[in-house]
Inverse folding.
């Protein structure tokens, strides 16, 4: 369906066309009309499906002719990167209409705090905020949400995972009871269902492709010992010199620096981004990656849902994510908006059980690449599942290689052993 057929404001249609879009994605096609009607929404869709525009466009449609100077919409997100991303998309889509917006998140200085305070006091139309920072402002009493009409929770599952439920509950209790509520999540875990029951009124439920990587992602794995990972990484990058943007995900922020040093030392200029950097430094790195000045970006999982950059050619999981859902979000950074991309995961023996969970979640076996000959043999696939023994990629039970034990013979041998006789 074309955006012009959904019933959006003509100035919004013009802005969408200016950005190069004509047809709505499935989540947009289903969500936008219902949001315009005023219905509460619980939406579950994988990353890269156009989820942000699915709730931003109908809100902008409602605000197109608004003249009041008061806060109308509050969007709560788990990370500062996602807050910035959504606010930038609001600015782009509202280019031809008069709507104000402000992203409020931690990590700034005194000037940032004052700018946030001014935005909350002056009645900015749309506030995009992380829970902790927003609550800090609300406790000081100058944030007036009495005219709020729309509350949106994006990446709700991530916020619950990060322990924000108490902050969210406090925020909800300070908002008007009569409002439209929109909840978007990549998963529909029991905790999300529970939150939805307390927050939403007679919601429309939209479920699209739960926990599955986009079809355009070519997935594969290398089974490698830790000491083989860097050479494998070097091998991968040598074969893909034409790729303009590559993200490498590490399990820890300390390892980010190690990977960056190795890449730079071996002729692959790279930059790292993690919570170790100041906010301005992180934003500068993202600008460089977005513009193409930085080709290789090494990041932690905090970035997996906070980077909205098109034309990312490849995602490399230097470490297998501990949560199977995080794999989907990491991989979701590539092949966005129906493009093609590649995702490669390096798996050591300790992470094989994690890969097994990922494959069961996405209901697909991820193809295994052979290591370069000069690196020798890698680890063999072996996963122990409780009550199911060891399994390889083909699902066959591996033979037990321990010593056979004959309890009866063992007792006889013990009885007849002269060394066991009493003296």
């Amino acid at each position: 369906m074309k955006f012009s057929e959904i019933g959006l404001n003509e100035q919004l249609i013009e802005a969408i066309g200016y950005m190069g879009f004509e047809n709505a994605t499935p989540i947009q096609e289903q969500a936008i009309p219902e949001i315009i009607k005023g219905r509460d929404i619980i939406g579950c869709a994988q990353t890269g499906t156009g989820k942000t525009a699915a709730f931003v466009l109908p809100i902008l449609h409602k605000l197109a002719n608004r003249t009041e100077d008061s806060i109308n919409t509050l969007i709560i997100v788990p990370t500062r990167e996602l807050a910035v991303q959504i606010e930038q998309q609001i600015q782009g889509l509202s280019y031809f209409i008069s709507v104000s917006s402000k992203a409020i998140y931690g990590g700034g200085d005194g000037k940032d705090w004052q700018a946030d305070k001014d935005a909350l006091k002056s009645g900015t139309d749309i506030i995009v905020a992380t829970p902790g920072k927003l609550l800090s402002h609300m406790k000081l009493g100058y944030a007036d949400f009495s005219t709020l009409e729309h509350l949106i929770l994006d990446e709700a599952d991530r916020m619950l995972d990060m322990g924000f439920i108490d902050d969210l509950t406090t925020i909800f209790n300070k908002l008007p009871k009569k409002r439209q509520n929109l909840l978007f999540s990549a998963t529909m875990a029991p905790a999300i269902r529970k939150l939805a029951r307390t927050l939403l009124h007679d919601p429309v439920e939209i479920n699209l492709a739960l926990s599955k990587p986009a079809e355009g992602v070519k997935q594969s794995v290398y089974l490698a010992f830790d000491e083989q990972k860097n050479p494998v990484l070097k091998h991968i990058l040598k074969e893909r010199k034409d790729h303009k943007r590559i993200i490498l995900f590490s399990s820890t922020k300390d390892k980010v620096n190690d990977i960056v040093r190795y890449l730079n030392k071996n002729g692959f200029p790279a930059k790292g981004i993690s919570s170790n950097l100041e906010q301005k430094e992180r934003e500068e790195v993202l600008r460089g990656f977005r513009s193409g000045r930085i080709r290789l970006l090494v990041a932690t999982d905090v970035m997996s849902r906070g980077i909205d950059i098109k034309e990312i050619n490849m995602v490399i999981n230097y470490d297998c994510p501990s949560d199977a859902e995080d794999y989907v979000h990491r991989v979701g950074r590539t092949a966005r908006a129906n493009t093609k991309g590649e995702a490669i995961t390096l798996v050591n023996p300790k992470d094989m059980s994690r890969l097994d969970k990922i494959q069961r979640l996405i209901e697909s076996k991820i193809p295994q690449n052979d290591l370069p000959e000069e690196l020798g043999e890698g680890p063999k696939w072996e996963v122990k599942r409780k009550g199911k023994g060891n399994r390889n990629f083909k699902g066959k039970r591996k033979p037990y290689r321990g010593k056979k034990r004959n309890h009866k013979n063992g007792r006889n041998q013990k009885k007849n052993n002269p060394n066991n006789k009493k003296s």
Q: What stands out?
A: Residues 3-208 form a domain with the Rossmann fold fold (CATH 3.40.50.300). The first strand starts at residue 41 and ends at 45.
